[in-house]
C-alpha cells in the first residue's frame, strides 16, 4: 500500500457545487488548493439541476457565463404548477436585477465538469478524483489536514485550512465532532427518467393532485422526474407494485400515459432521502464547513446548489486574501458563518413552513387539493410573481465576486 504525503494551503473535501466553486475561486485568487472527490467522475444522476440567477450572476462577474451557457441546458423564465388540473403561474424571473433573468436547468455533471475544466487552467488548482477522505490530521486541538484513501494507497495532506464540502453525510464534520441539529423533513423523493416521444413535447414543472406531487424537469429528450412520498414510504409504494405506481403518475398528469411505460420495474426508480439540518458551529481551528455539510437543504425551491455556491463565494471573499499569506485566523472562519448562516436559516425556515403547511397535509390526504390563496393571488396578479422569483432566484443574501484574480504564470506556484 503506497503512502503519499502532500502539503497545500487549502484542502477542499468534496467536489460538489460548493467544493468546485471554492476550489476555483481560491486558485483564481492565487491560493494553492487541492480538491478531493471520492467519485471517479461527476456523472451522478439524481442531483439538483437548477442553476439560479444568483449563481449565473457570479459566473457573469467571473467572465464565465457565456461559456457556461454553451453547455446543454433549458432556460425557464416563468414557473407554474398544475394543481388538480388547473394551471397556476407562480414565479416570474424576467424582472430580476441580474444579467440572466431565468433558471437554467442543467444536469449537475455538466455544471461540475464546466467548473473543473475552468479550474484546471489555473496553476494553483489540483483536483484528485477517486480520493475519499477517511479522517482528519490533528496538531493538538487544531485540524492540520486530512487522511484519504486512493485505490489501495493512502494519502496524507497537510493544509493550513481544510474546508468540508462533502455534503449532507459529511465525514469531515463527523470526525471534527461538530454538532448537527436535525430540522425534520416529512418527505422523501423518488427520482426517475421518463422519456419524451418528441423533444418538443412540453409540460408544466409541477403537478399536484389527489395522488401526489410530481415535478418534471425538461432535459431535452426526457424528463427528470421527482415524485414526493411520505418519509420512509418507499416500501409501501413498492408493495403496491410498479403498475399501480405508473397509474398514480398518470392520474396526476394524464399527458404521460404512454411515456410512463418506460418505468418497467422499481430498478428504474431511485430513492433520495430528504434531510434538513444544520451545524451549530461551522468551524473549528483549521476547519470550515460550507454547503450541505453546514446546512443540508430540502429540495423545495431547488435552492441547495445555489446556496452552496453562495457559501463558496462568501468564503473565498473573506478567506482568499489572508490565505495567500498564511493560515486564516479562526475569527475569519466565524465571519464566514456569520455572513452565511442567516440566509441558510431563513431559507430552511421557509422550506420547513412549506413542508408542514402544504406537503405534509397533501401526503396525508387522498383528496384533490385546492390551490392555496397565496397561489391564487400570484396567478391573478402577475407583478406579485416577482416576489417568489426574487426569493428563489436571488436568495436572501446574494453574494458577489469580490476576491481579486491573481495571475500566476503557468507552472509557477504563488
Ligand atoms: C431529492 C433532492 C433533490 C434536490 N434537487 C435540487 C435541485 O433541483 N436544485 C438544487 O439547487 N438543489 C437540489 N437539491 C439540494 C442539492 O443537491 C444540495 O443542496 C447541493 O448539491 C449541495 O452542494 P454541496 O457541494 O454542498 O454538496 P454535494 O452536492 O452533496 O457534494 C458533496 C461532494 O462531496 C463528495 N464527497 C462526499 N464524501 C466525501 C469524502 N469523504 N471524500 C471526498 N469526497 C466526498 C461527494 O461525492 C460529492 O461530490 C436536492 C436535494 C435532494 C435531496
From TrEMBL:
<dbReference type="InterPro" id="IPR002938">
    <property type="entry name" value="FAD-bd"/>
</dbReference>
<dbReference type="InterPro" id="IPR050631">
    <property type="entry name" value="PheA/TfdB_FAD_monoxygenase"/>
</dbReference>
<protein>
    <submittedName>
        <fullName>Pentachlorophenol 4-monooxygenase</fullName>
        <ecNumber>1.14.13.50</ecNumber>
    </submittedName>
</protein>
<keyword id="KW-0560">Oxidoreductase</keyword>
<dbReference type="GO" id="GO:0018677">
    <property type="term" value="F:pentachlorophenol monooxygenase activity"/>
</dbReference>
<keyword id="KW-0503">Monooxygenase</keyword>
<feature type="domain" description="FAD-binding">
    <location>
        <begin position="8"/>
        <end position="341"/>
    </location>
</feature>
<dbReference type="GO" id="GO:0071949">
    <property type="term" value="F:FAD binding"/>
</dbReference>
<dbReference type="InterPro" id="IPR036188">
    <property type="entry name" value="FAD/NAD-bd_sf"/>
</dbReference>
<dbReference type="Pfam" id="PF01494">
    <property type="entry name" value="FAD_binding_3"/>
</dbReference>
Amino acid at each position: 500500500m503506497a503512502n503519499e504525503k502532500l502539503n497545500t494551503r487549502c484542502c477542499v473535501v468534496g467536489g460538489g457545487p460548493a467544493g468546485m466553486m471554492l476550489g476555483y475561486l481560491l486558485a483564481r485568487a492565487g491560493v494553492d488548493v487541492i480538491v478531493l472527490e471520492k467519485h471517479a467522475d461527476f456523472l451522478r444522476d439524481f442531483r439538483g439541476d437548477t442553476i439560479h440567477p444568483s449563481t449565473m450572476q457570479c459566473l457573469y462577474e467571473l467572465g464565465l457565463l457565456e461559456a457556461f451557457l454553451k453547455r446543454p441546458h433549458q432556460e425557464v423564465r416563468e414557473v407554474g404548477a398544475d394543481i388538480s388540473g388547473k394551471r397556476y403561474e407562480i414565479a416570474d424571473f424576467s424582472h430580476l436585477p441580474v444579467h440572466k433573468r431565468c433558471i437554467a436547468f442543467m444536469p449537475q455533471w455538466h455544471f461540475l465538469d464546466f467548473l473543473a475544466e475552468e479550474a484546471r487552467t489555473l496553476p494553483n488548482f489540483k483536483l484528485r478524483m477517486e480520493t475519499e477522505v477517511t479522517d482528519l490530521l490533528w496538531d493538538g486541538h487544531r485540524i492540520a489536514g486530512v487522511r484519504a484513501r486512493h485505490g489501495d494507497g493512502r494519502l496524507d495532506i497537510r493544509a493550513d485550512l481544510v474546508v468540508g464540502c462533502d455534503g449532507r453525510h459529511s465525514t469531515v464534520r463527523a470526525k471534527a465532532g461538530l454538532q448537527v441539529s436535525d430540522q425534520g423533513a416529512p418527505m422523501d423523493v423518488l427520482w426517475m427518467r421518463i422519456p419524451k416521444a418528441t423533444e418538443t413535447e412540453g409540460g408544466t414543472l409541477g403537478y399536484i393532485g389527489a395522488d401526489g406531487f410530481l415535478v418534471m424537469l425538461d432535459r431535452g429528450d426526457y424528463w427528470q422526474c421527482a415524485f414526493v412520498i411520505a418519509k420512509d414510504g418507499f416500501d409501501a409504494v413498492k408493495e403496491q407494485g410498479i403498475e399501480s405506481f405508473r397509474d398514480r403518475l398518470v392520474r396526476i398528469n394524464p399527458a404521460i400515459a404512454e411515456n410512463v411505460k418506460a418505468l418497467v420495474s422499481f430498478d428504474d426508480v431511485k430513492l433520495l432521502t430528504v434531510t434538513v439540518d444544520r451545524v451549530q458551529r461551522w468551524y473549528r481551528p483549521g476547519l470550515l464547513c460550507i454547503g450541505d455539510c453546514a446546512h443540508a437543504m430540502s429540495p423545495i425551491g431547488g435552492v441547495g446548489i445555489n446556496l452552496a455556491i453562495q457559501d463558496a463565494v462568501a468564503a473565498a471573499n473573506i478567506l482568499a486574501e489572508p490565505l495567500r499569506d498564511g493560515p486564516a485566523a479562526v475569527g475569519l472562519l466565524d465571519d464566514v458563518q456569520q455572513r452565511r448562516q442567516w440566509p441558510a436559516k431563513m431559507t430552511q425556515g421557509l422550506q420547513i413552513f412549506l413542508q408542514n403547511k402544504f406537503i405534509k397535509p397533501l401526503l396525508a390526504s387522498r383528496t384533490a387539493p385546492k390551490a392555496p390563496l397565496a397561489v391564487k393571488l400570484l396567478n391573478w396578479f402577475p407583478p406579485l410573481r416577482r416576489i417568489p422569483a426574487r426569493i428563489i432566484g436571488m436568495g436572501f443574501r446574494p453574494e458577489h465576486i469580490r476576491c481579486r484574480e491573481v495571475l500566476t504564470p503557468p507552472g509557477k506556484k504563488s
